[in-house]
Structure formats: structure tokens, C-alpha cells
Amino acid sequence: MGLAVVALVGWVFLGFTMLAISHERMFFVGVRQAYFMSPLRAKRLTSRVVLFQSLPKDCQNERALRQVLRHSVRRIWMATDCKKLEKAVQKRDKAATKLEGGEVKMIRQAHKAMTKDTKKGATINKEESHAKQYLDKLKRPTHKTKFLIGKKVDTVDWTRDELPKMNRDIKQQQDQKLDGHDIVAAA
After folding, report:
1. What is the pLDDT of residues 128-165, one digit of tens each?
2. Are 134 and 114 within 8 A, CB to CB?
3. What one-character DSSP code corresponds to residue 151?
4. Going by C-beta distance under 8 Å and a sequence separation of 6 or more, which residues neighbour residue 46?
């Protein structure tokens, strides 16, 4: 009988502890909700934004969501899969860095050739650009379009031709994202 009393007191104490925890949790939820609905906090955009992470296929467009949510929503932004766009931007950034490096290398080589000529006593033609005067003598920077098997091309000319093409492709992909023509991705 003494063991049963100890077990009963233990269960009563555990029940009281669980009741107190659930009561405090409900109180915390109420205080938190009141804080989020306070006029100072309710004006913030973060208090009025809802993120839906998994939508059924039939609700993955703006028209269907507006029909479901009706007048309670002002704007809807659909999350899209941007991996292809990110790769294109990274490729463009790499090409721009390559162009910058090639131009810096050409400038350094032209400056080195110019200082070498001035030390020898050659006169500098004031009508022509200094760099242009010395670039014809230099070996321009080159690179391969693909590792080991690619065609060897002039770095500066190639990147100057490729960057506008890459920019057009990126702009086209961005416009598609803004128009909502892409598949909705999980957020």
C-alpha cells in the first residue's frame, strides 16, 4: 500500500506539472498573438506575409490562389525555380572577370613595353593612344573555350562578343520569371 501511495503522489505531481506547462504555453501563445497584432507591429510587412510551402498542383497559379483566398490578399508572389538563371549569371560573371583580367594583362604588357622603349630613348607618338601604339607588338591574352578540347580564342575579343549575348539571355530568363511562365518551386 505504501508503494501505491508514492506512485499516486508521483502521478498527481506529474499531472500538475503538465497542466502548469500547458497553461503557460497557452498564455505565451496569447501574449505572442497580442504582440503581433499590436498597432506598432501590425504595420510591418513581415506581420502580413504568409508563406505556403507546398500547394496542390491546381493551386499553383495566381488565379486559383485568388479564387481560394478571395479578398483577403493583395499581392501574390509565386516562388520559381531559378537554378538555370543562377547558372547563367555565374557564367556571365566568370566571363566578365575573364575580360577584366585580359584587359589588365594587356595594359600591363603595353605599359611594360612603353617603359622599355622610353628607356631606350624612343619617342612617344602623341597623336596615337599610348596603349594602342604598343598593343600591336604584344601577344594578346588567350584562353580555351572548353577545358583541354576547346578552341583557343582571344580572351578580350571573345568575351566582348559573348557578354552581350549572355546579358540578353539573362534578361529573357528574368522576364519569364516576372511574367510567371515558370514552374512553381517549393520554397
Report:
1. 555 666 676 557 888 888 888 889 888 889 999 999 99
2. yes
3. P
4. none
CB pairs under 8 A, 24+ apart, for 132-138? 134/109, 134/110, 135/106, 135/110, 137/113, 138/106, 138/109, 138/110, 138/113
pLDDT at 180: 67
Gap between the Cα atoms of 55 and 64, Å rounded: 11
pTM check: above 0.85: no
Location of C-alpha cell 501590425: 42
How many CB atoms lie under 10 A from the CB of residue 90? 10
| Per-residue pLDDT at 51 | 80
- Burial label for 110, CB within 10 Å (0-12, 13-18, 19+), is buried
On the question of pLDDT at 181 being above 70, the answer is no
Place of cell 525555380: 81
pLDDT greater at residue 18 or residue 42: 18
Locate all alpha helices (DSSP H) within the chain, ordered by sequence: 2-37, 39-42, 62-69, 83-120, 130-135, 155-179
Contact status, residue 113 vs residue 134, Cβ threshold 8 Å: yes
